[in-house]
Design goal:
two-stranded antiparallel ribbon; 19 helices; mainly alpha
Amino acid sequence: MQITRRRWITMTGAAALVAGCGGGGGLRSGGGSPATTAMDPTLRPAPNPAYDSWVASFKGRAAGRGISQSTLSAAFADAGYLPGVVERDRNQAETSRTLEDYLAITANEGKVQDGRAALSRNRALLSAIESRYGVPANVVTAVWGMESSYGTRRGDIPVISALSTLAYDGRRGAFFEGQLIAALKILQRGDISPSRMTGSWAGAMGHTQFIPTTFEAYGVDFRGDGRRDIWSDDPTDGLASAANYLGKSGWRRGEPWGYEVSVPAGVGGGARSLDGWAAAGVRRADGGRLSGGTSARLLRPQSNGPAFLALPNFRVILRYNNAEKYAIGLGHLSDRIAGAGPLRGNFGPDAYGLTIDDRKRIQSRLTASGYDAGTPDGVFGKKTEAAIRAFQRANGMAETGEPSQALLQRLG
């Protein structure tokens, strides 16, 4: 399948960043914090003669693909090799979060309230976007929340430097060189200047974290000022571009992404019509009716958690980011933004016999005892693990860094 906005889930985006979240750190979807480059010297250009030679060679190839010398000169005037980008590319965490943890990060109450406020502030704009592209305002808002925390984390790493570093490094050289060519075409068209073309370490850009090839294919000038600007504080073009992407990927007007459902014992998975699922005893968790011939797929992403019926628009969300948890997270967040309540199905205890409330209590009590476990969200990452180890070490316990009922009791 051709790589577009999916951008290799392990590269950037919510699915990968969840691996680095929890226990002290907010969701960073695609971008870094606003002060990333200023704080991290590895994200500033460093001398590298081999990179310089690669750039000289690349410029010849880019010219052969229609990139002008003036564009190349402007794009690379302040560009350089970023060692921190290579480090991030080679050390991506492969941690797999449960759906419960994933939703605790991507669709927590704070994200829901922020999303409702963002929808309210931008209601006229989002209504106009919905009218043109057919994608509901709450869904576009949820994309915005998943990708850049409603525009607050768009990334500040120079895209030309990041992409040229990754193309030179060679691990996915052909892919990143293609992205670099697309980025140069964007500059040549005049959508943005090199100094303002910033994004994540892997080149995802703007409010909705498009990679350059996806921007080229689906970016729109909704403001009508002659530029497709997804980078500015004004989210207009970014939100419209996301809706255009989903619309052209087959979004079905007037249909939901899916439903949380209750499933009788003995009912297997697979795909059936909504009528077929209803006949098998499957019911919407919110009490609504299942009916019609639309095909839906039964999802049970966590054995001790809620079940869902995924409708055709679920597959469209997967075009945006090809991870089942992402699509469920975006769909659920969009429902919450529109006014729905939390999931009705419960997640059972984890492998340590702890519920999410138990894990939140551990984090809160560790912090209260002087061991900073970060935000008490029930999602354990490196910060929480370090706090547990420090507490265990100081209290004569086996230093495992792992939670337990005994730890919770010891914390009081």
